[in-house]
# Entry
Amino acid sequence: MIELKISETPEEVAESFARDLFQMINQTNGHFHLVLSGGSTPRLLFDHLSHDYASRMPWEKIHFWWGDERCVPPSDPESNYRMTYDHLFSRIDVKPDQIHRIKGELTPEEACRLYVDEIGDLIPEHGHLPLFDLIILGIGDDGHTASIFPDQIDLLVSKETCATATHPLSGQKRVTLTGPVLNNARQVSFLVTGKSKALRIAQIIHQENSAVHLPASHIQPGSGRLSFYLDREAASGIK
Ligand code: 6PG
# Structure
C-alpha cells in the first residue's frame, strides 16, 4: 500500500516530511539509521531541518547514510555528501561518527567495499540483509532511483549490498545501495517535486505496464511502509 502525501509546493513537501521524521525519531529508542538521497530535491529538506529543527531534533540518535554517491571527492560540488554538509551538517550538532559517507574519492570498487564493511559493522540484519530504519529516495526523469538506472536494472536484484554504477548520460561513476537492501528497509519515503517527474510518478502510482522499465517502480519494501511526498506539480499526473 502506497501512502501519498501531496503538498502544494516543494517547501511544503520539506515541511511535511520533516514533521513526520521528527515524530519517527522521537518515537525511536536508541539509534535511528537514516539513508539520505542525493541530487537537488533534498536540499530544501536539509535547509528546513537545519533552520527549524536545529535545536529540537534529537540529532544524537541519528546515523546518516546515503543511498548512493557520485565517485568524486567530498569537496566536489557533485558530491551528495558535500551537498548534505553545506545544507545540514554544517548547521547542526552532529558528531563525525554519526556520518557514514561513501568515500567517493576512492575507486568505485574500494568505496563500495568499505561502505559494505561499515554497514556490516553497524546495521542490524533482517533476512540476511541490512535493515535500515528509513530510506529517503528521489526519482530521476528517467525513473532511476539511488543510482539504479534503467540500463542497469539488474541492480534491483543484486546479491550484493552495494554496487558500482555508471550514469547513462554523463558516464559518471557511482556507488549505490542495491534493490534488495532498499526493499528491506523498515520504511521508504520518496521525496519528489516538479513537473518533470509527473509522468514517472503517474506511471508508478497507477502501476502502468510501462513502469516495469522504471527502477523506482520496483521499490516496494517488504514492510509495506512506502510513502510518496509530492508537490502538486509532481502529482499532477495522478488521476
Ligand atoms: C543522485 C540521487 C538520485 C536523485 C535523482 C533525483 O545521486 O543524484 O541519489 O537518485 O535522487 O536523480 O534527483 P533530483 O532531486 O536532483 O531531481
